[in-house]
Amino acid sequence: MARLLLALVSGFVLASLAPSPASIPGTPPGPGAQEGCRRCDKRGVVPCGKHSEEIIAAEGRVHFCSVVAGCEECGGALVVDCKRCDGGPDNAAMEARRVAVAEWMKQNEIEEHFGRPVARCETDHCELVIDLKGSFKVGRTKIDAHELMHLVADDTSHVCQRVVEHHGVEEDDIFAKMRMWIWESAEDHKSAVETFMHTSARGDFKMLGKDPVFSVWREPGLFSSPGAIRTVFTHNVGHMMLSNMFRERDVGPIGGGWYDAGAGHWYEYDRFDSSVQYCIEEATALSSFADGVWRAAMRKLVARSDEPLLPPLLDVPTTAMNVQQQAICWSFYDWIVAHHQEKMRPVLRDLKQKKPTRDVMREHFGMGVLQAEEAWKQWVLDTYPTREKKKRR
């Protein structure tokens, strides 16, 4: 087990920073080079005993985490010197990691503003703040806010990776990391939005396009449970990433609402097998569609619909759609992923250029809107179940 944990730490955290010459095949050890011992697997370092196996593994999936960065034993490196030997090839990488973590911790205007530690982490595409207190119940297990932050990091990373796969995203296609925050109190949420966004917000705040930001507070009944926190981050990171790819522009209000709405729900559904979050005006958010489990309900809707479902939605902004309309967009996006994934990149690029949807579908799907609707409906009838399987509790 110690070897497995050490492999996780060295593989995820240390390897990219300062690989020692001894770790490079064909390189002879330098003068006085240390070789470690059996206890440290010839590395010179061992896992820090202050962190659980689960946390060590989770830390390996993020770039930096302020919680472990505050560890007095390892300084965020997750490993410490082996006390049974004089060192090994990974000691230099450990020191480099500590320096990198310390430098990252200095880049924290949020902590400077609040004058206190703020739990945050950074992934490939996101800068997350989970500034919460207490414990949370997930199934039969209780977790703390640090563990919840890593669940959110895994969720958002999953979505970002799926968006990358679907749209053939390259490194220079994305302009900025998504900043996503949740605060314990409405006061801190309001203060953060006013200070860093130079605007005001009572409820959740989201800015898409250039330098996307999402901020919310642990509002009772809305974003107080771990499930609600995870789904709202998962749903919104999809919108945010699409708005920041290829061109810093949100397609939701400029004729691409059908694509934007479908994407937000699709990636949430892909992660949790349901979709319960809606980016719509509060006045229309009076209920959910089929309690968030949609395939059987969508099949039923398609089977009994005599009128076209897609054409009325083509010019509707994301936030102006009702829950059923957003579910329709999710299903159409589901069809696109299944049959036209190779076209998703040019489709999104054209929508950002304000190209009419009818022209986009004709060029990239090889069919008009009504033909696309018929193909989508037939696919739904052929593939969606007539009833949903009951989830085990």
Describe the structure in your own words:
- The protein contains 14 helices and ten strands.
- With 393 residues, it is an alpha+beta fold.
- It has three domains: 37-107, no CATH class; 109-246, Glutaredoxin (3-Layer(aba) Sandwich); 251-388, no CATH class.
- The strands form three sheets. A six-stranded mixed β-sheet has the order 2-4-5-8-10-9, sandwiched between helices. A two-stranded antiparallel ribbon has the order 1-3. Strands 6-7 form a two-stranded antiparallel ribbon.
- The longest helix is centred in the middle third of the chain and has 23 residues, at 145-167.
- The protein is elongated and about 75 Å long.
- The chain starts with a helix and ends in a 10-residue tail after the last helix.
Number of beta-strand segments:
10
Percent of residues in beta strands? 5-15%
Instruction: Enumerate the spans where pLDDT stays under 50 for 5 or more consecutive residues.
Output: 1-8, 10-32, 282-286
Q: Shape, please? A: elongated
Sheet with the most strands, sense and barrel status: 6 strands, mixed
Taking all Cα atoms into account, the compactness measure Rg is 24 Å
Helix content: 40-55%
By CATH, the architecture of the largest domain is named 3-Layer(aba) Sandwich
Strand order of the main beta sheet, please? 2-4-5-8-10-9
How many angstroms does the end-to-end distance come to?
A: 31 Å
The CATH C-level name of the largest domain is: Alpha Beta
The CATH homology group name of the largest domain = Collagenase ColT, N-terminal domain
Outline:
By secondary structure, the protein is α+β, with helices and mostly antiparallel strands. Helices cover 44% and strands 10% of the residues.
